[in-house]
Structures are given as C-alpha cells and as structure tokens.
Amino acid sequence: MADADDVRQLALALPHVVEIDSEGFDFRVANQGFVWSYPERRPGAPRVIRTDVAVLYVGDEAEKQALLLGEPELFFTTPAYDGLPLVMLRLARVSVDRLSELVTDAWRMRAPDPLVGDHDGTDSSSADLSRADR
Predict the structure, then answer these.
(1) Dihedral, 73, 75, 81, 86 alpha carbons, nearest 10
(2) What DSSP designation does 31 have?
(3) How far apart are CA 130 and CA 126, in angstroms?
(4) For residue 35, what are the β-bridge partners?
(5) CB of 14 within 8 A of CB of 24?
(6) In this model, does residue 117 exceed pLDDT 70?
(7) Is 44 left (phi over 0), alpha (psi -120 to 50) or beta?
(8) pLDDT digits (tens, 9 = 90+) for 50-65
(9) What average pLDDT score do residues 110-125 get?
(10) How far from each other are the two terminal CA atoms of the chain, in whole angstroms?
(11) What is the pTM of this model?
(12) How far apart, in whole angstroms, are the C-alpha atoms of residue 35 and residue 99?
C-alpha cells in the first residue's frame, strides 16, 4: 500500500511541480495545490499534520461525491471541506498504481492547458477540449 514517500515521488515526477515547505507534504503546479497532507483539526487541540492521509483536488462536487460514495474505504471528508472540491485519501488503503492515477488526475485539473497537453502528448487545443469537460 502507499505512503507519503509514494505521494512525494509521484507528484515530483509530474512537470513543473513545486513542493512547498511544510510539516508533511504539499505539492503545487502553477501556484495551485493539488495534493497535500491532511491538517486534522480537533476542538481544543492544535492541528495535527497527517502524512498518512492525502488531501486531493478532485475538480467538482460530482467527482467528490462519486469517490466518497463509490470507495468509502479509501475516501472521506469532514465538514471543514464542505463545498470544496477536495477529498481525503487513506494512503495505507490505496495501491501505488491507484495513487498514481489520483495524483496525476489532480495535477491535470490544476495545471495550465499547455502543461497538460505536453504531458499527455497532445497539443494544447486537445487539452482545451478535455479540460472543458471538467
């Protein structure tokens, strides 16, 4: 199963990704976060950075609900993330192959069109068409 080192390796393998200095992991493309450690907040206690849980950008509420309902053993959310296109992923329960797919999809949704086209081996007009569906 996957861990924080796998997240780091997968994220840094993608074009133009920057890791932000943090207690856990935090990756961005074009100043847009796409995967980071879950900052768990509990009433009356300081937040705890959970490197065993990744927060992933998923694009929209429909995708979020599909993941939450379709794979509840992997994904969860909290009230703090209501209305945001983000899900939490239990790393110990996901395969590295599935994690690669999820991290890459999150990157694609946040990266500028030309980067996505270059990464996918398509021209930017093809990337524009695929992004229009998001």
Answers:
(1) -170
(2) T
(3) 6
(4) 27, 56
(5) no
(6) no
(7) left
(8) 999 999 999 899 999 9
(9) 64
(10) 29
(11) 0.84
(12) 11
37, 52 contact by CB (below 8 A)? no
- Return the beta strands (E) in 65-122 as ranges: 75-76, 86-90
Residue 81 is given by DSSP the state: G
Residue 119's pLDDT band, with cuts at 50, 70 and 90, is: low
Tokens 């924080």 locate to 4
CA dihedral 29, 100, 130, 63 (to 10 degrees): -100
The Cα 49–Cα 4 span in angstroms is 12
**DSSP label of 80:** G
Helix, coil or strand: residue 2: coil
Tokens of 29: 């493309």
As a dihedral over the C-alpha atoms of residue 84, residue 89, residue 90, residue 91, rounded to 10 degrees, the angle is: -140
Chain CA centroid to CA 58, Å: 7
Q: Residue 133 carries which DSSP code?
A: T
Q: Where are the alpha helices (DSSP H) in 13-95?
A: 61-70
Give me 86's structure tokens.
């983000």
Positions of E strands within 6-134: 17-19, 26-29, 32-40, 48-57, 75-76, 86-90
